[in-house]
Specification:
CATH superfamily of the largest domain in chain A: Aspartate/ornithine carbamoyltransferase
Strand order of the largest sheet of chain A: 7-6-5-8-9
CATH topology of the largest domain in chain A: Rossmann fold
Distance between the termini of chain A: 14 Å
Largest sheet of chain A: 5 strands, parallel
Oligomer: homotrimer
Helix content of chain A: 25-40%
Largest interface: A-B, 31 and 27 residues
CATH class of the largest domain in chain A: Alpha Beta
Chain lengths: 304, 304, 304
């Protein structure tokens, strides 16, 4: 990556120039289905270290690496691992790094010490979704999906719905899409979007918000936090769920995206996921191309 | 596969012609130990998705793929995965498929929706043992082991013992072996073999059944269901367990098979597993060859 | 391996000649970072079977294999595996071996039956740390790290601290380092080093022990056994923990090693782990080279 070394820990490390060059490569991968990839770093060994549960992101990275001819080593830190022996995550991480992988993809919770440690590494590191604040490859694949749809970001209106404040997807997306020239609007409530109150496009009703937006993106709320904010699953759903009944309000050029995993009938209804407006499975597909582009860019740089 | 697209979801999809061509290839793999395999689809990325516990089947598929030069991606859906976030298995599956693996091996419980979804896929899918009704690759490896032993199925007598009704191995085997010309007999009881009461060869005593059979195959009962059927482990064992004492009743051309994992002294005794009549470890070995033959046949077709 | 077939189950199987030839290869791997490795057995499929939790050892073996161009199959036996269906570890192992991996790395608890079974195999097996008595690759990497530091073992003084009796690292290291000509000293207590009372170098105080040693190696105690031996974490720490305050007693040519994972402030303090005297992360790094050397030596022999 250009702005600060070979790693991608934070969305703000991505310049627009880097982003568009990644998109060019991702587009090529999609068109060619990775046909005839030069095998320039096949001896490289990437390592995936997940301190938090994941299926989609983990498999997406593995698939991207496999498509590039790489053989990732997968480490889930859970009850089968040294943590049961009392080792801290930072110690586990230091040990893993001592084994000199060529690339580390890591998912971890909010932990300043780990972030500081990762920033200091020469080994390239990709943040696989950390804590509440960062999920840069999700932001990239979301932006790529929007770019694929509209060919540009200028004047595009992206609406985020629901629990903004606990969503690493939201914070990464707001930063990235704004930098790329898009307008990001929010339909949320005071508690669930605090820190974003200066955001320009805020809506009073879902109907107003939907009328404004090109891209409609409900977020996954963390159900375990509902109580804390005075919500139940059903009261959250009543306010924020994107339902089948909303589909008839949508123009054909409006698209629905969702970072997944979704909570059926809490943030989105299955009928919407499977509707013609939905780009949700394209997002998942695009994740492989975008991550492969990122990995290729990092390893090509390293093996120059 | 020939009868209905590239997938193998159900045993009935396998024509005898396809079966024997798979056996030819499996035999070759066994003789050559995969030496000098042409590397015609090494860029292909297979994915193994297990919603249910497995060691043997999972490792067998991985070994088969590795022998063919493939690098499978392994996904266990459990507490480390998105399911903890409330995603349904079908949603997980749809997301995985959106990432476009070249082949999916999936084990899942009885779930009509998932089966319907899988049937509609263009991506080849192999059923890795689903629910109570289907385990086609187990049926294939069992049939291959019998074929290896006797060179034919015509007039061969295969005896299944015990809990027929809850065994996906039983239902797949009864179908496949019968199609191939073998006779399948049952030693069970009324509750444990209902739906199979029209089966021609039913035995009153284990001794009569053993005298009849060429191949003796005790099945693994699900201990958690014993109570429901009025059994305890010991009363089940008393009736159905294949014991050391039975070995002396066997001719040298009779063989013992078991789909595994076995319950020591419930469905079979260790002395029988390790006896000269046993082909149980050959079954496990053959599983690798047969699955490799199947995978090769599917991917060769796809990459034609 | 030279003394008894292709496997490495016990430290005593390693002759000094074999050890030094492994070290030569490990040194080469470290210097060249595995550059230009001949790909002489890339079709080989190694299998890692862990019946006990591990991160460091498991990832180290995987990394070593990946660096050699191998694609290991990883099997964790836990709640996702056949053991939930009542299969014994020995049965699981027999099934796995029936699938004919080219190499098996296995970690298992103290189990004579399993050890006997493994000894009888033609397939090469590496003990990945078994029970309380053996962890031969840890002993090798520890010895390599000492050799790297001092260029020889003759007259080198290695001090083990703490819970000797429950440490497979201790028993493997005492054997290996003594064979190589080093002196091994213990600072422990009567209960925690019984069976080693004939050891020549025993110390009354940590200060005396530290003054004597070249290499200082605190061991990881098993906290769950503290009570049984009349210890608490804090009373164990008071007696055995290597603390920041000890650093000022050390000469610059004394090194600190630890097999990991460590218990912060129980057996060692973080400041010591990160001190200039520490070689703890070098140990972890060296583990990859030493294990790769061992695997290469075994597979080269097999594929001759």
């Amino acid at each position: 990556m250009s702005k600060s070394g070979p790693s991608l820990l934070f969305t703000h490390q991505l310049s627009n120039e880097v982003i568009f060059s990644l998109f060019e490569k991702a587009k090529l991968y999609k068109e060619t289905q990775f046909h005839n990839i030069p095998d320039s770093y096949s001896g490289a060994v990437p390592l995936l270290l997940f301190f938090e549960p994941s299926t989609r992101t983990k498999v997406s990275f593995q698939m991207a690496m496999s498509r590039l001819g790489l053989k990732p080593i997968m480490i889930d830190v859970n009850e089968q691992s040294s943590v049961v022996k009392g080792e801290t995550y930072l110690d586990t991480l230091k040990n893993i790094m001592a084994m000199k992988p060529d690339l580390l993809v890591v998912r971890y919770g909010e932990d300043k010490e780990i972030t500081n440690y990762l920033e200091a590494q020469e080994t390239p590191v990709i943040n696989g979704g950390g804590g509440v604040s960062e999920h840069p490859t999700q932001a990239l694949l979301d932006a790529f999906t929007i770019y694929e749809e509209y060919g540009q970001f200028q004047n595009r209106k992206i609406l985020l719905i629901g629990d903004i404040v606990h969503s690493r997807v939201a914070s990464s997306n707001i930063h990235l899409l704004t930098s790329l020239g898009a307008q990001v609007g929010l339909f949320s409530d005071e508690d669930l979007c605090k820190d974003y109150s200066s955001q320009k496009y805020m809506f009073e009703t879902l109907a107003q918000a939907l009328a404004w937006a090109d891209v409609i993106m409900p977020l996954r709320p963390q159900k375990e936090r509902f109580k804390q904010y005075g919500y139940s699953a059903s009261s959250y759903a009543e306010k924020f769920c994107l339902r089948q009944e909303h589909l008839k309000m949508l123009r054909s050029d409006q698209i629905v995206m969702h970072p997944g995993p979704w909570n059926e009938s809490v943030d989105i209804e299955e009928a919407v996921v499977n509707s013609e407006n939905s780009r949700i499975f394209q997002q998942v597909e695009n994740g492989v191309y975008v991550r492969a582009a990122l990995i290729d860019s990092i390893l090509s740089e390293k093996h120059k």
